[in-house]
Amino acid sequence: MDIITTHINADFDSLGAMVAAKKLYPQAVLAFPGSQEKTLRQFFVQSSLYAIDVLKAKQVDLDAVRRLILVDVAQGDRIGRFGELVGRAGVEVHVYDHHPPSDRDVPAQVRHVERVGAATTVLTGILRERRIPLTPEEATLMVLGIYEDTGGLTFSSTTPADLEAAAYLLAQGAELTAVPAFITPELTMEQISLLHELLQRRVVHSVHGCAISVSEASRDSYVGDLAVLAHKIRDMENLDALVLLVRMDDRVHLVARSRVQEVDVGRLARGLGGGGHPEAASATVRDLTLIQVRGRVLELLPEVVRPRVTARDIWTTPVKTLTADVPLATADELLRRYHINAMPVVAEGRVVGLVTRQLVSRAVHHGLIGVPVAEYMLTEFATVVPGAPLQEVKERIIRGNQRFLPVVEADRLVGAVTRTDLLRALGGPEDLEPVELSGEAQQRLDGGLLEERLSRPILERLRALGARARDLGMQAFLVGGVVRDILLRRDNLDVDVVVEGDGILLAEQVAVLWGASVHPHRTFGTAKILCPDGFRLDVATARTEFYSRPAALPSVEWSSLKLDLYRRDFTVNTLALRLEPQRFGEVIDFFGGLRDLKSGTLRILHNLSFVEDPTRVLRAQRFLVRFGFTLGLQTQSLLRSAVKEGFLAQARGPRLFHEWALLLQEAEPERLLEEQQRFGVLAAFHPKLALTPKGRRLFKRVHGVLEWFRLLYLDTPAELWRVYLLAALDPLGEEELAEWAGAFGIAEGEGRWVQQVRETGYQALVELREELSRGTPRDSRVFQILCGCQTETLLFLMAKTVDEEKRRLLSRYHTRLAGTCSLLGGRDLRELGIPPGRVYHTLLDGVLAARLDGEISSREDELAWVARRWEEVKRER
Q1: C-alpha angle with apex 713: 711 to 719, nearest 5 degrees?
Q2: Gyration radius from the chain CA atoms
Q3: Cα–Cα distance measured from residue 325 to residue 345, given in angstroms and rounded to the nearest whole number
């Protein structure tokens, strides 16, 4: 038997979704897990047109159920006795839902979850895609569900998909006249009395700048449709958010509604065992009094309410400024250098005007290069204070048609809000499900995810650092790869913090708190903190940089977080987390990093990124393979152009070689080299470098040899990436290798090492070949030939040679001979009465050879062998 069910206290969205699911599972039986909301009960009493056969839970034989289809719910504790089927052998679970995921969700073989306004919308999309027809009655029931859960398509949770689904159902014959008849019924006398009491006992609590209305009441008998009362109170009082608490019988019922993004009532309800959306949620609490539930609600509110967004939250600070006497040509150069579109003109800290890139460019075009900016700057402009709400900022920028809004305090410039800042703030949170964030963590990472990826001591230190930064009037942010990897659920303990303020001062103060040492680099405003337990933390003052020419090292200036992140390589590496105590864990995404992380796309931040720093070409290819990303089309085109125009070849030097070495240390270096071949990177390193069929076979053998070596679990130290380096450079002759090393500026480092490895390694292969031509060499001779080679050399030789006999000898050396030594030393020889001299080397080498060849095995054997050999030496003399 297949069962389609939903949550307890089912509503019209539950019913609409059940009807839709029945179209997907025609043989399934509909069953409510428990009670329904009053409006839905009245529907079944009053409506004879919409005849639906729905069982009660107690009518279902659970042992006969083979498939459980859940709609508008994913939590096992909200489906009554049907929860007993979850995890039962032989029972499949299919889920169709639109609620944010939670840790109480049931495991399912099929899961369709979309962030839309109604569960019915999810199923309507599937039916539409599969072209499954609907009757007008079915379409009407389904549109009732969408209209109820989206507040008639007016709630902030409503999405374009909800409107499209409603339009589709209307085209299928849905009767919209049924909506007001069932969704907005008349109130009963009991409901009116309860509504009056809730209004009288309403208390407004201010939480992070948001006004939350909490009302409570008690009734000895059950009064239905609290959701209807919640909507009426919210509309009558024009509230942003409210919570209703009503004790009925032995339970306390909670219904919560929110109109603003800052208040997530779904998280509030989940904290009390219920569920719902950020805009609408409910819970039923047993075993607690009304006073206890109210106390718990007031405890949870600071956790589920985000602070209201103000100008301070979205501004850019510090701001690059001009003085009134600066020539327009200089202003033009500065606007281009910092990649900004507008700058304020200040006099004694006060904003006296604004200039834009368009205005300055046109002035320069007309030859006004030496004219001061004061002559043409904009002098009529609006400003706001740091605490100005987002709505005021929006009014100033949009209605005032002002792309750059100075933020002033006591008449002095402290920051600025740009149109881009505003658009990003108005855009709302990204959908982060592809990187597996829980639904309530769309702008702030939930504690569970942070605790999963970072240890408790690290989290405590980051919280302490954020609090100290706040006390010093600074803001601190966790940035870079660690944020990216937290979202991707990957390990990364390279913890980097950027500070809007004096990063070195902050590092010195927290180092004292932690009993740590601090190593500042004042030229770059950075510091490294080393804790007694080995934890390392890099702290940097927010800075920006510009390049005087392609591939040059950058010039650095102090700046804001936004400009600091703008200098980074890829959008996925520009994400930051606030460390400020009140907003700890909030994600900051200036450049679409969340979007690209979701789609698995690697993009640079601006079109000259590869030109200014060609090492990013190698970094891009490293991330492509490590994370399974793809290059954005424009990024791919710009990468090819940078290689083709020779910028990568110009950048050859130790820094570029370091990036190549990091690339060879990745899990699949052969795939990375294929990427480099595809984009012409190898040829940019040296014209003779290429992955030929022969080279690919060599890399395949290198991979096999290294896998074999890892499985030996030897304590032998080895840098295995160097074996790949030797393979990559194999096409180069001696002169070409010297040319390559010179171009990278490593002739005395890695270049010399490669040359020495080739000399010793190839000579060893020659000697092995000569020994094999005379028969099977003794182990002592193999040891003598190979003991002077480094481990990386031997592993490369195993891959390089295709002669099985040589490979066998190399393998035997690794597994049996390497590390063999005599148990005797010079003292032992002196005790045997042998006078010191060159003979010691002869005797010790001889006894080692005898041990290698299996002639002796113990210390006593060695002493006896030396004694005999010494007698022979004396006779020979």
Answers
A1: 90
A2: 36
A3: 9
DSSP state of 384: B
Confidence category of residue 553, pLDDT binned at 50, 70, 90: low
Burial of residue 747 (number of CB atoms within 10 Å: 0-12, 13-18, 19+): middle
Separation of alpha carbons 724 and 709, rounded Å = 14
In this prediction, residue 437 has a pLDDT band, given cuts at 50, 70 and 90, of very low
CB within 8 Å of 645: residues ≥ 6 apart:
611
End-to-end, the C-alpha distance of the chain in Å comes to 100
DSSP label at residue 812: H
Q: How confident is the model at residue 524 (pLDDT cuts 50, 70, 90)?
A: confident
Q: How far apart (Å, rounded) are the C-alpha atoms in residues 762 and 63?
A: 73
Residues 6+ apart with CB under 8 A from 461: 510, 514, 531, 535, 537
Mean pLDDT calculated for residue range 378-396: 90
Distance, CA of 851 to chain centre = 56
> Residue 875 contacts by C-beta under 8 Å, 6 or more apart in sequence?
none
Count CB neighbours of 718 within 10 A: 16
- Percentage of residues in the chain having pLDDT higher than 90: 58
Residue with tokens 């240890």: 455
Per-residue pLDDT band for 555 (boundaries 50, 70, 90) equals low
Residue 509's closest CA among 501, 546, 854, 354? Answer: 501
Coil, strand or helix at 203: strand
Specify the DSSP element, H or E, that contains 674: helix 669-679
pLDDT number for residue 609: 87
Which distant-in-sequence residues (6+ apart) come within 8 Å of 781 by Cβ? Answer: 771
Model pTM greater than 0.90?
no
Backbone angles phi, psi at 206, to 5 degrees: -95, 120
Alpha helix positions (H), 488-632: 503-514, 561-566, 593-599, 609-612, 615-627
3-class state of residue 300 by DSSP: helix
- Residue 558, CB half-sphere, CA atoms under 13 Å: how many? 14
Which residues, 6+ apart, have CB-to-CB distance to 701 below 8 Å? 798, 799, 800
Q: What is the pLDDT of residue 355?
A: 93
Q: How many CA atoms lie within 13 A of 133 on its CB side?
A: 3
